[in-house]
Amino acid sequence: MTLPDYHGGSLANLMASLRAALGRPSADYPPLRGLPPEEIADARNVVLLVADGLGLDLLRRIGAGSAWERHRRGAMTSVFPSTTASAITTFMTGEAPQQHALTGWFTYLAEAGSVLAVLPFRARFGGASLSAAGITPRDLFGLTPLFDTLAVPSVVVAPAWIAGTDFNTAHSGSARRIGYKGLAQLFASVASVAEAPGRKYIYAYLPDIDALAHEHGTGSDKVAARFQELDRLFGNFLETLRGSDTLVIATADHGLIDTAPERMVKLSDHPELERTLVLPLCGEPRAAYCYVHPDRGAAFERYVGDKLGHCAELHRSEELLQRGFFGLGEPHPRLARRIGHYTLLMKDNWVIKDQVAGEKPFQHIGVHGGVSAEEMTVPLVVARV
Q1: CA-CA distance, 94 to 205, in Å (whole number)?
Q2: What is the pLDDT of residues 7-35, one digit of tens each?
Q3: What is the pLDDT of residue 12?
């Protein structure tokens, strides 16, 4: 296992450095080793660029000689689980999952009576966004956007199809939102904001690498080609900003590992196991939270040990909480309810999936959410322009 290094080497610590430099220090997390708040505070502009899925392992494989590698200062861990729903919430709130309690793509929210797909903000069964019922992410999650706590104006730059979503709008808070179409427009938008008068913090998000790796795998030509385009524009972007006194920090929310159809455990193939559960699987296919009927705990443990021991490690979720998988400090009051009774941490490149009514079956090639080094380790790229 590669576990989050919340004591100075994780995304939560990166955000602690940013918070200390631009707002108020974190009460739970020390600053990131290798990027002290003083270095951030010394810049007129601060840009945080997040390339979804561009983990350190992938960067090393496809990025030799790249601008990303030339400016790479080191590496960090993601949060647990190593997935967009949890890590992006860390970027946008400055808190680890221990505090924000969004624990995977599918999160059970008892207060909504539903398993929620967090980022599209809809019930898992595929219904309309909860906002159609008058519920907002701020109402349901109760999280304070990082941007509302900073002492400088903030801008959030995201793909046009994401910029105005319920989740992004709520967690952007007081920040100005800019939607873009295509990588060239992304960098042009960030450069335009950075070159404007005044001090500011700019958070920019790129989903392309993750989306292509899901569909084609991390070793695909499509992923490599998109990275080459990203890196070329990134290098040009740094040149464009020359003289603007901007600190550019680039990283990823997580890395990925490739799986295969024969490495998928389908819950429907294990009806005896399925009968022990009272809810669909939550979390991620690489880190699945299991809500087990109170009378079926022994049967659940026995079945996993006998039938799935080759591909999954079984943990009581409370144990992961106590071991600090989700973070440090006082946990969110609803965190324990959002991680189930047990967690299946999938070994090697195995995944486990179930299917609820109305869902179309699908198989990603590139996957994440687990605790392999490939999924958990992300680059720290720092360029002072």
Answers
A1: 15
A2: 999 999 999 999 999 999 999 999 999 99
A3: 98
> Do 349 and 207 belong together in one domain?
no
- The pLDDT tens digits for 66-91 are 999 999 999 999 999 999 999 999 99
Q: Average pLDDT, whole number, for the chain?
A: 96
Mean local confidence (pLDDT), 366-375: 98
Tell me if the pTM is above 0.90: yes
Helices assigned H by DSSP within the chain: 11-22, 37-41, 56-62, 67-70, 84-93, 97-100, 137-141, 160-163, 166-172, 183-195, 208-216, 221-240, 271-274, 297-307, 317-322, 373-376
Q: Is residue 3 part of a domain?
A: no
Report strand pairing: 45-51 vs 264-266: unpaired
Is the Cβ–Cβ distance between 139 and 154 less than 8 Å? no
Q: Residue 214 falls within a domain, yes or no?
A: yes
Does the structure show a pLDDT above 80 at 64? yes
Identify the domain containing residue 351 by its residue range: 261-366
Cα–Cα distances in Å, from 252 out to 15, 88, 172, 247? 13, 9, 19, 17
Same domain flag for 245 and 272: no
| Token output for 127 | 């219904």
From residue 193, how far is each of 23, 72, 203 by CA, in Å? 20, 24, 11
Same domain, 162 and 198: yes
**Which of 376, 356, 360 minimizes the C-alpha distance to 368?**
376
- pLDDT tens for each residue of 197-219: 999 999 999 999 999 999 999 99
CATH number at residue 18: 3.40.720.10
Q: Is residue 123 part of a domain?
A: yes
Q: Are residues 165 and 283 in the same domain?
A: no
Are 335 and 102 within 8 A, CB to CB? Answer: no
Q: Is omega for the bond preceding 4 within 30 degrees of 0, making it cis?
A: no
CB 210 within 8 A of CB 84: yes
Q: Which two tokens stand for residue 186?
A: 């992304």
